[in-house]
UniProtKB/TrEMBL annotation:
Pfam families cross-referenced by the UniProt entry: E_motif, PPR, PPR_2
NCBIfam families the record matches: PPR
Species, as recorded: Solanum lycopersicum (Tomato)
Lineage, broadest ranks: Eukaryota, Viridiplantae, Streptophyta, Embryophyta, Tracheophyta
An individual GO BP term: RNA modification
GO molecular function, one term: RNA binding
UniProt keyword Repeat, yes or no: yes
Entry protein name: Pentatricopeptide repeat-containing protein
Length: 442
């Protein structure tokens, strides 16, 4: 809290900044309001645009319930006309999740006759995209047309992104075609929209056109192309893109992002051998293996998805030997593999030895997977232990009770089922009922 003596030190920008910084850190809204009132009375608020920026951007952080009204009142009093200041405020709000304030700042600039540039437009369009406000975005689009800023590839790309994220793909594609000078970023934006709408053929057609447009393919472009191959189940096309990646991407062996995508693509197209070849080649040129948990998990998922359960278990052993800490997805994959191969004791020891039990949701899921496997292989004793451990972590999990009841029923243990039902009634649990709806056109 500041004191009156600190107020009387004179218009020193450094001291004012320090006091303001202290108020914000304490998150004392009353102190901030008192401090702001003092600055208004004395006129110190006009010392510098930097200080005005800090004060404006602090309002939503310290009063989230009424930040729109406070911000509006602040602007009505200050009436800033500096485009640089307003662009900075607009960009800050857009990047930090205060999208409504970003759009309000843009409206203030537009109706106040303050100069608008590509920086202003891009930030406001980005805010519209984040809240999927197509109506506001279309108004900005109209302004862009009238003001002549459509020739800017950055503004055009932002508008394409707005329509693509709002799933107005036809509008996005039409707008993309109208952009006079396209760049790789602009193409990647529309590719993202095609992928979101599962328009794989259109995405691949655009990727094929890029060399004719003298545009380079980057990691994101290859990512979109590989996703399209998965969507189309186009194994041969995926191999062609893999060859293009090898030719175009420098240090491909160390690019774990693309390596993971290639492994996933080959796995979903059913080629475990190709996926394993990509996995084995990571870091091969440099004589050392630097495969992170994402790559290991991707390869494990490929093995599990294609029924290579023994290979998945062996791969998991290699992962642990290499000192990689498995994540929840990797553990669930190897548990599923153990379940399919009947190695229930190994699955039991794997979960028991889990050294990262802070994630209870994953652990309950793992115990449930083991219980399901015990049901399939009629291992009642181990299944009861798995159910007990799961219910210790989540006593209200009705799914565990259902699995346990099914296991008892399969083995004719009717007394245990009766006791289990009594226990469920005591806890007041009810099984979630599934619903199916059929829309009949009249």
């Amino acid at each position: 809290m500041f004191t009156q003596s600190q107020f009387e030190t004179g218009p020193n920008s450094s001291s004012i900044t320090n006091i303001f910084h202290h108020c914000c850190n304490s998150k004392n809204l009353r102190a901030i309001k008192v401090f702001q009132a003092h600055l208004i009375r004395t006129g110190l608020i006009f010392i510098s645009t930097n200080f005005q920026f800090k004060l404006a951007t602090s309002l939503p952080n310290n009063n989230k319930n009424n930040h729109v009204q406070n911000f509006t009142n602040f602007f009505k009093f200050l009436k800033p006309t500096n485009p640089l200041l307003l662009n900075s405020i607009l960009s800050h709000f857009s990047q930090n999740g205060f999208h409504s304030l970003a759009l309000r700042t843009f409206s203030f600039m537009h109706f106040g006759g303050i100069g608008i540039d590509s920086y202003t437009l891009c930030s406001s369009i980005t805010a519209s995209s984040a809240v999927k406000d197509v109506k506001f975005g279309r108004m900005i689009h109209t302004l862009v047309r009238k003001s002549g800023w459509f020739s800017s590839v950055y503004v055009g790309s932002a508008l394409v992104d707005l329509y693509a994220k709002s799933l107005c793909i036809k509008n996005a594609a039409k707008l993309f075609d109208e952009i006079p000078l396209k760049n790789t970023v602009c193409v990647n934006v529309i590719l993202s929209g095609y992928a979101e709408a599962k328009m794989w053929m259109e995405g691949m057609a655009l990727v094929r056109k890029m060399p004719c447009l003298n545009l380079c393919l980057d990691d994101f472009t290859f990512s979109a192309a590989l996703r399209a191959c998965v969507g189309l189940s186009a194994f041969e096309l995926g191999k062609q893109i893999h060859g293009c990646v090898i030719r175009k991407v420098h240090d491909m062996e160390s690019n774990e992002f693309l390596q993971s995508l290639l492994i996933d693509m080959y796995g979903k197209c059913g080629s475990v051998e190709k996926a394993r070849h990509v996995f084995d080649m990571v870091g091969f040129r440099y004589g050392e293996r630097k495969r992170d948990v994402v790559l290991w998990t991707s390869m494990l998922s490929v093995c599990g998805r294609n029924g290579k359960f023994e290979e998945a278990i062996n791969l998991f052993d290699d992962m642990v030997m290499e000192g990689i800490k498995p994540d929840g997805v990797a553990l669930l994959t190897v548990l599923s593999a153990c379940s399919h191969t009947g190695e229930l004791d190994r699955a039991w020891s794997l979960i028991n030895d889990l050294s990262y039990k802070e994630n209870d949701n994953f652990t309950v899921t793992m115990w449930g997977a083991l219980l399901s496997a015990c049901h399939n292989f009629d291992n009642v004793e181990l299944g009861k232990l798995a159910a007990q451990r799961a219910l210790e972590l989540d006593p209200q999990n009705d799914g565990v009770y259902v699995l346990l009841s099914n296991m008892y029923a399969r083995n004719g243990m009717w007394n245990e089922i009766e006791m289990l039902r009594e226990r469920i009634k005591e806890k007041g649990l009810k099984k979630d009922i599934g619903h199916s709806l059929v829309d009949i056109t009249r």
